[in-house]
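User: Please predict the structure of the protein below. I'd like the answer in structure-token form so I can feed it into my own downstream comparison script.

Assistant: Understood. Taking the following sequence of 704 residues as input:
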Amino acid sequence: MKEHEFYVGMEGREVFWNIPLPAFEILLFALTAVAMAIFGYGVYRRWQMWKAMGKPEMRLDNMGERVKAVILEGLLQVKTWRDLYPGIMHGLIFFGFFVLIFGAAFDAGQHHVTEPLFGWTFLKGNFYLGFSFLLDLFGLFVLVGVIMALDRRFVTKPDRLGYKGKMDTTPDDVIVLLLIGAIIVTGFIVEALRIHVTNPPWEYWSFVGWLLAKTFTGVELDTARTLHLASWWVHAILALGFIAYIPYSRLLHMITTPANHFLQSHKPTGYIEPIRDFENAEAFGVGKLEEFTWKQIFDSDACTRCGRCQDGCPAYLTGKPLSPKKLVQDIKTFWLEKAPAAVKAAKAGEVPTEEEGGKALVGEVVDLHELWACTNCMYCMEHCSSSIEHVPKIIDMRRYKVLTEADFAPELQLTCRNMENNSNPWGVGAHLRGDWAKEMGVKTLAEDPNVEYLFYVGCSGSFDDRGKKISVAFAKILQEAGVSFGILGNEEGCCGDSAMRAGNEYLFQALAQANIDTMNGYGVKKIIAICPHGFNAMKKDYPNFGGNYEVYHHTEIIAKLIADGKIKLPEALKGRFVYHDSCFLGRYNKIYDAPRQILKAIRGIEVVEMERTLDKSFCCGAGGARMWMEEDIGDRINNTRTKQAMDVKADTIAVGCPFCLTMMADGIKDNQMTESMQTWDLAELVVKAMGKEEIKPPVDTCAV
């Protein structure tokens, strides 16, 4: 709209089209009002749909952090830039349009009123030249971004923009891109025609229009004025149409995504809201759309279908039915089907009734194979550029299947029964839990409660042959460093993580409360865990039930002991080592440095990184209770991860999790690499580097 200063000039109000100014402005403002009314109605209609369904939920705490999230994620697009090409593509369009809209509004305040806004006149002299240059530059940015987007949608077609090889491009995607492109192109044409007619000597500052104007050489001035008038109105109507179209298209994410950043959870990463009142609950989990909170439903409307979640989902990448993007979009489609009736009922003061023969949320909208394929690895939530919370939805639906319908995999039923009867997934006698420590002189808290740390050993470290080796190694490290610690022995119980993430919240709370009562009885303040699953549960979930402790992972403690010189590593090891980031240690708790510091402290080894590492690490496949379930669809996740270690020619996979150790050991066997590759916990490697024990090839990973 910068053109207006030439057909209604700042000095003398030179008439470019021979159209009376008041008539022009009345028509323009009338069309603008219509566009804004259509926009406003669309947003209002959507608002009614958002509030018509879902249970109440407050998301207004930590206002400073929420505003900060809108600025960082909504305005500056921090997460979007993590992937370079799509980040640049989206940034060019977003920031380009932002500057152009601001520029158009600024121009309107200067020229599309009888007098300049507040009497201020800026669009003259050097300021005008810079203003012209910036608007052309950012207009060009938008055009480049649109071309990049069209290339991704229709030429390169990355898998994450579809599902199982089929692109999910809709007519709306095409309309949006073409509309944006048309606005920019017509704007440049308008500018070029104006330059062709007026031919001022300074117009090379409007460099795109200036270059394009050369294509009109030979066009008569009267014809150019007519073309300018026509193209200006085409440009204006397209721009106003764009505004009106926003609430009815995927462009709505311009509103919903920043809002979702504002409304994101400020609970600890991976936190799962417990069921608070089992005694009075009429149903458990989520079996109907209405049983989600309104925020969980709103999540789906904020999804931009960018596919970042799908791009690293271990279930999807190994051929399982689950795609986090598809799951969220399926919920959105179901909501769009049901919301109009809910809005109608709300207006009539009625409660929406369940449709006869309607689709079931769990089992039809969300297929059960999708529901149970999730490993809770948190890749989807970590990399979602819209702050969508996928994992809590999955656990809520699992709760419904387990607690309300008692419908879940037989092997998982056995696991839960074992945890209920013997407080461990294998069902081994609970009285054997402390046997691994009998020859080491490790005291229980019953023998000596006056210790600094409780070493929470966990089920794997207590019962699994391979896991017990980790417990022994870590205990030796603590003893060598003179750390004051003890264990609970037979009083220790399962942490309950697998029960919780399988949806068996009742069992989890029973297990957690038993541990908390025991720990609080001994006055425990500090806990060290070797399993990231127990570590995470005690750190983030136990506080809901009165268990408030300082919780550490054993890699944090080992790294500090090495840094403080409390333990020495004189022995050199050999080989090419790669560290596998546990999901519950990395993405859940941001512990990336400590394990790598340990490896760097070991002499003689070469440390390399896999392609998928740190916050993009690939899950081992054991999380989300998948450790106890058969993996009968697609490739095995642990085998895929092992191949990624093979790709960097590593001969040793170092881990910081007993579950990961089991999965990587099985992956090595399945890939027939037992002669050339091994996997060890970092505690075992440190003991070897301390010269305290010769590491021998591990026995098969299995429970006692």
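That's the full token string. The two ends are 77 Å apart (CA to CA).
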